[in-house]
Amino acid sequence: MALSGVENLARLPELKKKLLWTFVLLAVYRVGIHIPVPGVDSHALTEFFNSASNTLFGLFDMFSGGGLKKLSIFALGIMPYISSSIILQLLTVVSPELKRLSKDEGAEGRKKITQYTRYGTVIITCIQGLGVAVGLESMSSPTGQSLVLLSGWSFRLVTMITLTAGTVFLMWLGEQMTKKGIGNGISMIIFAGIVAGLPSALSNTFRLVSAGELSLIILFLILVVMGAVLAFIVFVERGQRRIPIHYAKRMLGRRMVGGQTTHLPLRINVAGVIPPIFASSILLFPATLANFSSVEWLKKISGYMTPSSIIYNIAYIALILFFAYFYTAILFDPKSISENIQKQGGFIPGIRPGAKTREYIDHVLSRITLWGALYMSVICVLPMILISQFNIPFYFGGTSLLIVVGVSMDFMGKIESYLISRQYEGLMGGGKARVKGRQ
After folding, report:
1. How far apart are CA 191 and CA 74, in angstroms?
2. 213-228, pLDDT tens digit by residue?
C-alpha cells in the first residue's frame, strides 16, 4: 500500500526533517523582510509605494516579497542572483571554456560555474543597491516628504552594503533550502514572497469594494477568471506529448529480452516557471535603475516600461518565448536521447534510428515548446488588462499565479517522489531480509 498523507511523516523522519528545514529557512526569510535599511523614512516610503502599487515598483515589490516596500535588507530579493544565472547560462552557450566546465568537468565544473554566479550576484547587487540609494535621495512621497532622513555618500554606502549583504544571505538561504529541504530554494523564496502578499492584496480588494471603486459584478468576474486561469494552468502543466518507443526482442545470454513498447513523455511546458521569472528579471533590472534615476530620458523609458504598457508586454512575450526555447535546449538534448534509445535497442515506429530519430524528437520538442511558451505568455499578459482596467492588486497577475501553481505542483511532486522512493527502498530491504533469513 502506497504511503500518502501527513500521518506517514512519523514513519519517515528524513522527510519530516526536510520539511522542517524548508519551513524554518522560509521563516528566517520572512523575518528578514521586516528588518529595514537604516536612514529611510518608513512612513514616507509606505505612502510612496501605496501610490505606485500597480506600476513597475509593484511588480518588483511582488518578487521581493514586500521587501522593497519596507526597504528591508532583502529589498532586492533574489532577482540579482537570477540575473547572474541568466548571464552565466547565456555565456555558457557562446564561451568554449564555460561550456567545457558545465559539460566535461562534471560536478567540479558546475561548482566553478556556481562560484562565478555568486560573484556576478555581488556585482549586480552592488550596482542595483547604489542605484536604489541614489534614486531614493531624489524621490519624495505624494505629500512632498523626502524618503531619506539624511542624504549623502554615507547613506549610499550603507544602503549598498546592507542590500548586498541581504541578497547574498538570501542566495545562501536558497542554496541551503535546495540542499537540506525539499524543492528548489530560489523558487520557494519567490513563492513565499508572493503568498505572503496575498492577505494584504485581498484586504485591498475588499477595501475597493466597500469604497465603491470596485463593483461586486467586477469582483465576481475577477474570481471567475482567476478560477479559470488556475484550472487552465493545472491542466497544461500536467499535459504531456508521449512519443511511443518500441524495443525489439534480442538475446541477452540465454534469455530473450525486449519486445515491449513504452513512451518518451515530453511536457508541454518543459521549462516550467523559469521563462517568466527570467523575463521579469531582465525587464526589471534596467527599468528599476531608470525609475530611481533623475535623468529625464531614463524617466521616459521608465514610463514606457510600465506593466500595463504595450511595449512592456511585447518585450515580455518576446523574452518568454526566447527563454522557453533556451531553457528547454539546456534541459533536453535530442541527440543524446536518440543515442540512448538506439543503444538500448529501441526505435520510434516509422522513424529510422540515429539522425532521423534526433530530428523527429527535435521537431516535436520545438512544436510543443512553442505552444508552452504561448500558453505562458497568455497567462502572464492577459491579467495585465484586468490590472490596468479594474485597478486590482498586482498579486492577481498571471505571473504570480503561474509561479504559485507551478512551484506548488513541483513541491508536492517532489514529496510524492520521495515517498515512493522510500517505499520502494523499504520493499527491497524487506526482500533482502527474507532472502537472508532463508539462507
Report:
1. 15
2. 777 887 787 788 778 8
